[in-house]
């Protein structure tokens, strides 16, 4: 079964399905505790802009300290604080690891040529950064941080084909998902944009214990440094998905 523009079809998995709608996503985030929100990153932040306040977090969000342990979570949060220009960045171990990593990626994209010198882990415009988006997407889903997962899609989530409310509700019957990433394809350009595909194998477990597997690929896109492009437009984002059920 072929699935596009979303991650898994509702008939097989209660995840994001096909058919574009007008998204209504959560507001951007700032540093918060376990009871605060899980927002997406601002669309076009200036290098010194503080991150705006955000609404309450979804019930059941799994903190980074729980996901990977307190020590590794603190190391990740420290790295986040070192590169983030935000006044109150979401670099807190009570947030999901995906949100902290997303702030690192956002901040590194703002640094441009200075990213490596600042200790950024990968070239923000390279294929590895695109692969990291897919990895971060599933890490956010497993942490029930649906806002961060939604923000990995282009257009503030619009490319998922769902509103934020429908997107997050679509995972209610999914216990967990894991992804195995293949080698990304060559980066290709067209009309001021760059594209790259990342092969994946997705394993999902539903709340009733049913196991499902899907194989396929994600297509990611970013603007190719054209005049007037915002830092957010220069970041890799999920543009579409093509997944099929596999035994």
Q: Outline of this structure?
A:
The chain is of the alpha+beta class. The protein is built from six helices and six strands. A hairpin with a 2-residue loop joins strand 3 and strand 4 (about 195-205).
Radius of gyration, rounded? 17 Å
Total separate domains: 1
Bin the helical content.
10-25%
Coarse morphology: globular
> Secondary-structure element order, as H and E?
EHHHHHHEEEEE
Query: Please, what is the average pLDDT?
Result: 80
Structural class: alpha+beta
Counted beta strands: 6
Proportion in β-strands: 15-25%
Count of separate DSSP helical elements: 6
Poorly predicted tracts of residues: 1-24, 27-58
The main β sheet shows up as: 6 strands, antiparallel
Assembly form of the protein:
single chain
C-alpha termini separation: 12 Å
Architecture blueprint of SSEs:
Layout: E1 3-4, H1 64-68, H2 70-83, H3 97-111, H4 127-142, H5 146-150, H6 164-169, E2 174-181, E3 188-190, E4 193-206, E5 211-223, E6 237-246
Antiparallel strand pairs: 1-6, 2-4, 3-4, 4-5, 5-6
Helix pairs in contact: 2-3, 3-4
Throw out a few tags for this protein.
alpha+beta; 6 helices; six-stranded antiparallel sheet; globular; 25% helix; single chain; 247 residues
Please characterize this protein's 3D structure.
It is a single chain. With 247 residues, this protein is of the alpha+beta class. It has one domain. 25% of the residues lie in helices and 20% in strands. It is built from six helices and six strands, in the order E-H-H-H-H-H-H-E-E-E-E-E. The chain has helices at 64-68, 70-83, 97-111, 127-142, 146-150, 164-169; strands spanning 3-4, 174-181, 188-190, 193-206, 211-223, 237-246. Strands 1, 2, 3, 4, 5 and 6 form a six-stranded antiparallel beta sheet that branches. Strand 3 and strand 4 (193-206) form a beta hairpin. Helix 3 (97-111) runs antiparallel to helix 4. The longest helix is centred in the middle third of the chain and has 16 residues, at 127-142. It is globular, with a radius of gyration of 17 Å. The chain starts with a strand and ends with a strand.
């Amino acid at each position: 079964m072929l699935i596009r523009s979303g991650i898994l079809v509702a008939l097989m998995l209660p995840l994001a399905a096909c058919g574009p709608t007008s998204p209504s996503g959560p507001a951007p985030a700032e540093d918060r505790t376990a009871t605060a929100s899980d927002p997406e990153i601002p669309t076009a932040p200036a290098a010194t802009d503080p991150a705006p306040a955000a609404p309450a977090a979804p019930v059941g969000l799994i903190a980074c300290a729980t996901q990977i342990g307190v020590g590794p979570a603190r190391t990740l949060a420290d790295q986040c604080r070192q590169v983030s220009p935000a006044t109150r960045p979401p670099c807190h171990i009570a947030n999901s690891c995906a949100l902290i990593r997303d702030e690192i990626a956002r901040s590194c994209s703002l640094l441009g040529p200075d990213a490596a010198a600042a200790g950024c882990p990968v070239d923000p415009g390279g294929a590895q950064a695109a692969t990291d988006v897919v990895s971060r997407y599933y890490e956010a889903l497993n942490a029930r941080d649906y806002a961060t997962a939604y923000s990995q899609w282009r257009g503030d989530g619009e490319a998922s084909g769902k509103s934020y409310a429908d997107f997050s509700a679509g995972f209610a019957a999914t216990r967990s998902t894991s992804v195995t990433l293949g080698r990304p394809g060559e980066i290709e350009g067209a009309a001021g944009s760059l594209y790259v595909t990342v092969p994946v194998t997705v394993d999902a477990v539903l709340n009733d214990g049913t196991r499902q597997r899907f194989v396929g690929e994600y297509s990611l896109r970013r603007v190719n440094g054209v005049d007037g492009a915002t830092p957010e437009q220069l970041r890799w984002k999920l543009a579409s998905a093509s997944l099929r059920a596999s035994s």
